Amino acid sequence: MIRLKDIEKTYENGTQALKGVSFEIADGEFVFLVGPNGSGKSTVIKLLTGELIPTGGRGMVNGFSLSHISDRQIPHMRRTIGVIFQDFRLIGTKTVYENLSLAMRAVGASGKEIRSRIPYVLELVGLSGKEKRYPDELSGGEQQRVAIARALVNNPSTIVADEPTGNLDPGRSLEIMTLLKRINDLGTTVVVVTHERELVNHFDKRVIMLDAGRVVADGAHTYEVASHEA
Questions:
Q1: Local structure of 11: helix, strand or coil
Q2: 2 neighbors 45 (Cβ within 8 angstroms)
Q3: Nearest Cα to Cα of residue 18 among 52, 48, 50, 41
Q4: Average pLDDT over every residue of 144-160
């Protein structure tokens, strides 16, 4: 469960990025977070992952308070959230298996758990047999699938995808979004930040729209109302 109530965030330079943002995302939901550049989307993501602390309001992510979380609790909160980035952020000198193994070792997984979990996750994202490949031996779409596998490998309850298709062509973008929908169908909460209106309109999912640090729309509607966005 993600719950934000009257969340405000003002940066040290005086920029007020969020101005009373409120919304809830239930366990198992699939939600698109959209809005023009500077609308506050990136700040929301940084709050959800514990990178930032709000300057006002109240927030909870998977049972952890965003306002009162201790440094000791942040790693525990982050284990409940898998993050997918636009630029993949894979380690180029490590194989697919090694990239996933590192993510599991970082949270204390045993060798047995690693050997059991990685093949399952690679099969889920359609990369069985690619374990020994290096990132530069894979296409962009395959690299993003590795990034999705890495986000899933520690079995988080929530996936946050920040512009996950930004570096992919339309065909690959649809494949990745369809994969995220499949992951959601298995019970994982999925939050996708995107500028791609066509993709949002293709999937009949809830859309939360931000503009100038505020929620300006929230519901199961298309992205057409944001046609002014660059």
A1: coil
A2: no
A3: 41
A4: 94
